[in-house]
């Protein structure tokens, strides 16, 4: 099997995982408060809090409006055993470092999901005896951090182990049942056809156990992908796999489908630019997909030099960018109101400005937070927010957050 990602950073492998969960708040020392909306957990980009030169989460929140982070990765201990650790070395039970990061994020009104698995290290599904003991290990993580979201990253080499995948899927089902409201996503490898043989076997295991997460996400990179068109094609093909596996119609399959991308240069030398992210974002929102995320915030900054001499880094993107350019696409996804009931997978039509109004809305404020549908006035025009925005002056920019509704 080809590697999905090369090791980036001291002990960390670059890997994408699946989205979080919206469970009841547990009493814990890290200050868990009311859960965010599921849309935020579905948009949370990955952050390694202990490796790959972790950026300051509060700085990213202030700069972009991002509220949710996907913390990676919880693994089995490097020496073996069935207890959760960060990266195989730092026991969750005695952790204070990650807890401090979580407390900082929550103090600013945000929240986290925790990702389990990934490409590197030994997974709990491999070392725990059965699904129940695997779930008990993950429950320790949920309880300690008061999680509203959890993420199962099931990929190579673990997903080649039938018993391990049975334990992981079984554990996910138990956690979903024991933590009402928990938002659970499962991420696996992406291929041009959607996902490979082992990914399909994982889906069949979920079907056999009667387990349905909020979404199944694929990682369409490190597989000969050439930009966004190859990625959206893979997402279309994966949708067909979900339909045939679970007996869903197209709309239901999209409502249970997610995208996990890689910003900038991938391990195999593919390049994904800001324009590629915009194209996939448009696809995800127009098809009412459940998740849009990427690996990683540690990489969401420009290298020096910008192309990093043609190599892939765990701490920068290897493409020209400003800090946190890619995080802004997650914010935009979170700001698009998800459909209610059964979604219709049809493209969103181009907005048509409404006729000029005779009265002006409340004046735009640089300090106020606006979400999709909010209306303001600025320079004698009314404007409607397309997605979450703060301190972005209303203008008629095609890619901006504001829609001009005409003179007032």
Give a verbal description of the structure.
The structure is a single chain. The protein has 408 residues and is of the alpha/beta class. Helices cover 30% and strands 18% of the residues. Strands 1, 2, 3, 4, 5, 6, 7, 8, 9 and 12 form a 10-stranded mixed beta sheet that branches. Strands 14-15-17 form a 3-stranded antiparallel beta sheet, with no helix packed on it. Strands 10-11 form a two-stranded antiparallel ribbon. It is globular, with a radius of gyration of 21 Å.
Oligomer: single chain
Number of helices: 11
Q: Could you tell me how far the N terminus lies from the C terminus, measured between alpha carbons in angstroms?
A: 61 Å
Q: Strand-and-helix sequence, N→C?
A: HEHEEEHEHHEHEHEHHEEEHEHEEEEE
Give the fraction of residues assigned to helices: 25-40%
Please give the largest β-sheet: 10 strands, mixed
Outline the low-pLDDT stretches. Answer: 1-29, 341-357
Beta-strand fraction estimate: 15-25%
The pLDDT mean sits at 87
Q: Based on helices, strands and strand pairing, what is the structural class?
A: alpha/beta
Number of strands: 17
Shape call: globular
Question: What is the radius of gyration computed over CA atoms, rounded to a whole number of angstroms?
Answer: 21 Å
